[in-house]
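Dig into these lines:

——
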Amino acid sequence: MLSVVAVPIVFIFNEPYMVFIRRAHHLSRHANQVAFPGGLVEDGETLVEAMFRELEEEIGVAKDRCSLLGTLSSTVTGKSNLLVQAFLVQIDRPHFRLNKSEVQDLYLVSLSLFDRISCDEIVLPSGGRTCRFVIDGIVIWGATARIIRDSLEKMKRLLEGFKDELSDRPGD
């Protein structure tokens, strides 16, 4: 099965912040985990269509308030064995409306923080390996952590190009 996630970015005082959700505790998959907004691709949808649909369903951000900046890494989830494709999305006018049946919290984390902390390798009970970031007691692990680790440099390049594009716009 195919799954997609948006790696949403908002700029606060000209600094990029990643938007994370904490998935609702009652969900059947990845309950209570810190993740990016996303989900399964439905029949007839492209990956990008599914990503924008999930972004709006989970945190209330419509496609017309975003800029798709590029494709990031893909990974396979350990337990549910889903292939997850990530997309970098810049949210132009942040206003969040959480779907409380799927999302219990929202976190903003400075992208630059990930330059200063490491993705620590962990061994799962199954014997598989993954990594995790721990930020002020919040644990970001598994597929979400691997996407950050594997895409961090590409995210910075794409965002630098986006910032250049913004500064070239008339009236800015």
Notes: The longest strand covers residues 2-12. DSSP finds three helices and ten strands in the chain. The chain has one domain: 2-168.
